[in-house]
Inverse folding.
């Protein structure tokens, strides 16, 4: 049986990812073990798990270092890596939005500054709108940017909107909804097709049940 | 400036020797199968890479420039379009069989094994439209990869027409067809479901499209597809794939063959059977090809054609991953001599070279070089020790 390497995202989607993979017959203690190591082999299901930064998942999968991976649609659209995106796993739901100070909605000139962790999504969005904006790439705490005058608006991912509200920001526009996706390396899909098809099938059933 | 621009590289002796040894085996395989090597120019008029409805390649991916007369030129993004031009404009009798090993230029994001300048080794079979020509093309690719020592690879066969034949019934606008094509290329089942629902495609048509991403695997998948895709056009293409498979089976290659009915090619000129070759544990295809029956029309002759290109740098990566010891350097010999023995020494060196060795004449007094170069053998001619 071919061994399959699975790249899972650290952080908010890790637990849910393990939950759906339970349907592939992984042993119970694997998640505990994973909290201590970066790399775990499960002999029972012949699956190897690696835990990496969410934005690195598509990179591992594109290069075939992992055969399959779990990754948010937001990250996929930002990085545009060349791999199969086969399933919407249905969890990790959130929205990519344009947000800014609540009291200043619709008052900006179209030529403005946009702070974001997703520069290529932001660029494409404004290009389609026909607006020339300055994109400012940040690596975190994007909500801060409009408060201190680094930018007029932000493009960011929103789950509940609490963080935005706490910082006096409000959603101006929704760009697209996002959720966790199952991605597969293009060569693995063909060279290990039986095994991967089986995993896709089981995960599909598991997502449809929940 | 001492740096290189993105996407190009220097090949130093050891790596180049490795690359050449692969190219030599590929060339020999192609030529012994009846494909004669040709070499088109590195650049030509940009319009040669396009047809009336537009360019075959993404314009932004081409290296374009003006010559002094103001004509727009482009570095070739592939060799197939050039071979099509040559076959249409310089020949009158068909079929023709050509092969090439040449560098191509694409302004993509550089990746391992896919630089902006990279080498393609391929064949083109022009003037025949028959399952035998598709099978021949695939079999040459398989033999070529086997000969360079690649193990554990799969030829993944698809059909460019299959998806097109399904589109006819859907009544989608052109740009929506493109969206669906991209989703299919990603095998994006969930998004395809959403797409079909949004476009009010239901019932039978919904089932036909939504399951397409999963129609890949061994020959059984074609039999399964026959039960699902029962209309005439689809049946014709499926039967054709089966006949090609039967030929390849008789050639002993059935173990290497898989099918993918959801395969779409990004280059726009493909029309029929298409294929890609994947090596286990290498994340990308090392060979791509297929039928392009409409390309030659562009240059004045309406002829069917098929072919493939192997990416030589990716083949190198695959061999490196399979830790194949490849480069055999010939034995190197230093012939050490002085002013009075040089005549005799030169003849000895010539003889050694003719026997396939590397032989260098070293004049006494250059012992430093002798040490640095680490020759396999040193022959002293008329020179005393010390």
């Amino acid at each position: 049986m071919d061994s399959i390497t699975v790249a899972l995202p650290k952080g908010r989607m890790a637990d849910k990812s393990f939950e759906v993979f339970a349907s592939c017959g992984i042993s119970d203690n694997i998640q505990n073990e994973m909290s201590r190591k970066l790399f775990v082999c499960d002999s029972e299901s012949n699956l190897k798990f690696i835990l990496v930064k969410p934005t690195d998942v598509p990179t591992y999968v594109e290069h075939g270092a992992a055969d399959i991976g779990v990754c948010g649609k937001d990250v996929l659209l930002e990085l545009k890596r060349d791999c199969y995106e086969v399933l919407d796993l249905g969890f990790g739901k959130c929205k990519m939005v344009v947000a800014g100070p609540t009291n200043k909605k619709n008052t900006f000139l179209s030529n403005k500054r946009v702070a974001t962790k997703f520069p290529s999504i932001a660029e494409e969005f404004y290009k389609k709108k026909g607006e020339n904006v300055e994109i400012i790439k940040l690596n975190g705490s994007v909500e801060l940017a409009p408060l201190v005058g680094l930018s007029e608006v932000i493009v960011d991912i929103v789950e509940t909107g609490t963080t935005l509200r706490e910082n006096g920001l409000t959603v101006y526009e929704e760009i697209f909804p996002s959720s966790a996706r199952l991605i597969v390396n293009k060569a693995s899909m063909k060279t290990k097709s039986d095994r991967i098809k089986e995993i896709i099938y089981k995960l599909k059933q598991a997502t449809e049940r929940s | 400036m001492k740096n290189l621009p993105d996407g190009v590289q220097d090949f130093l002796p050891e790596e180049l020797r490795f690359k050449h040894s692969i190219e030599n085996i590929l060339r020999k395989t192609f030529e012994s199968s009846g494909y004669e090597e040709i070499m088109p120019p590195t650049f030509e008029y940009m319009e040669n890479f396009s047809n009336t409805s537009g360019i075959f390649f993404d314009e932004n991916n081409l290296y374009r420039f003006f010559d002094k007369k103001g004509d727009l030129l482009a570095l070739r993004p592939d060799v197939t379009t050039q071979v099509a031009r040559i076959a249409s404009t310089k020949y009158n009798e068909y079929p023709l069989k050509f092969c090439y090993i040449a560098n191509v230029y694409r302004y993509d994001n550089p990746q391992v094994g896919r630089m902006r300048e990279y080498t393609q080794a391929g064949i083109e079979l022009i003037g025949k439209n028959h399952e035998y020509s598709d099978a021949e093309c695939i079999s040459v690719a398989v033999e070529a990869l086997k000969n360079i020592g690649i193990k554990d690879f799969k030829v993944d066969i698809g059909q460019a027409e299959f998806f097109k034949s399904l589109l006819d019934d859907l009544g989608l606008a052109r740009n929506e067809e493109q969206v669906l094509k991209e989703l299919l290329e990603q095998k994006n089942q969930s998004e395809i479901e959403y797409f079909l629902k949004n476009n009010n495609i239901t019932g039978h048509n919904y089932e036909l499209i939504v399951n397409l991403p999963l129609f890949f695997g061994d020959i059984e998948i074609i039999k399964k597809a026959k039960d699902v895709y029962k209309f005439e056009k689809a049946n014709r293409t499926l039967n054709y794939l089966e006949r090609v498979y039967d030929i390849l089976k008789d050639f002993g290659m059935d173990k290497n063959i898989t099918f993918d009915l959801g395969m779409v090619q990004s280059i726009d000129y493909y029309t029929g059977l298409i294929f890609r070759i994947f090596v286990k544990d290498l994340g990308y295809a090392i060979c791509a090809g297929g039928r392009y029956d409409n390309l030659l029309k562009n240059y004045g002759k309406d002829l069917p054609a098929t072919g493939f290109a192997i990416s030589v740098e990716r083949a190198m990566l695959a061999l490196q991953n399979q830790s194949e010891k490849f480069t055999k350097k010939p034995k190197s010999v230093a012939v050490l001599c002085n002013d009075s023995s040089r005549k005799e020494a030169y003849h000895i060196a010539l003889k050694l070279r003719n026997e396939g060795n590397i032989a260098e004449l070293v004049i006494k007094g250059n012992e430093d070089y002798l040490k640095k170069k680490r020759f396999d053998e040193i022959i002293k001619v008329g020179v005393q020790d010390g």
